Amino acid sequence: MCRLLGYVSHEKQTFNSTVGSDFSEFVTLSSVHCDGWGVATIDHNQSVAQMIRQPEAANKSKDFSTAIEKSVSDGALLHLRWATAGLPVSENNTHPFIYKDISFIHNGATYPPAALEPLISPELIPHIQGDTDSERYFYFVITKIKELGFIEGCKAAANYIRANVDYSSINAMIMNEKQWVVICEHHPDRAPDWAPDDYYELKYKSDKQGVLVASTGWNQPGWTVLANHHMLVIDRDSFAVEVIPL
Fold first, then answer.
1. What sign results for the dihedral spanned by CA atoms 221, 222, 225, 231?
2. Residues 191-212: pLDDT tens digits?
3. What is the pTM of this model?
4. Long-range contact set of residues 155-159: C-beta below 8 Å, sequence gap at least 24
5. Most-buried pick from 196, 221, 237, 239 (CB within 10 A)?
6. Structural contact between residues 95 and 2, judged by C-beta atoms closer than 8 angstroms
7. Which residues does the UniProt record annotate as the domain Glutamine amidotransferase type-2 (predicted)?
């Protein structure tokens, strides 16, 4: 299980400047979600995503603060990993995952971890480097994007999993140079036993500066809950925000 945070903005900036003083509170969630951290940036109209990740707790990492300071962008994703039982803690299993201009982070699990692998396009299989269900989910999404386009591909991938695969949550953020899709799809009753009722919820905030989306567990005053079984779509040209049922 993991924590997700992302933004798109009009001007290039960092997570510190985008989120503000509450960013440090988000980072404290790594005391539990302690098996890795990663940042992906994809500037508007840039053709290749950039990534840095390490298999250690963000709040204890010597490199985390430096990575955040150097991740200056008008679009970025941040992931704090709490490894699914049985999946190793390693760099290859640490989010984000990137392919060309597309970056991806996930919170939850599909069962078994390799359930989606037979559905991934053969040309993408060699790109898989780790053991996680999340990476296979990512390349399944890429497969559907290649078939149907960015938004419809993300939606089709989520709906296939909903109908055919066992999962706790397939909450995900998928960003490219033009658009950002946030999938909110989970079983609330399959959250960790200790977790609050809103553990799987995603919330967003849109204003004149840009759009922020994040998992819960920290201070998010005035944010809007993204309803379960829905997708948030942000256009990076117009900054229009649309909520679409899955």
1. negative
2. 988 889 999 999 999 998 899 9
3. 0.97
4. 155/231, 155/244, 155/246, 158/183, 158/185, 158/231, 158/246, 159/246
5. 239
6. yes
7. 2-246
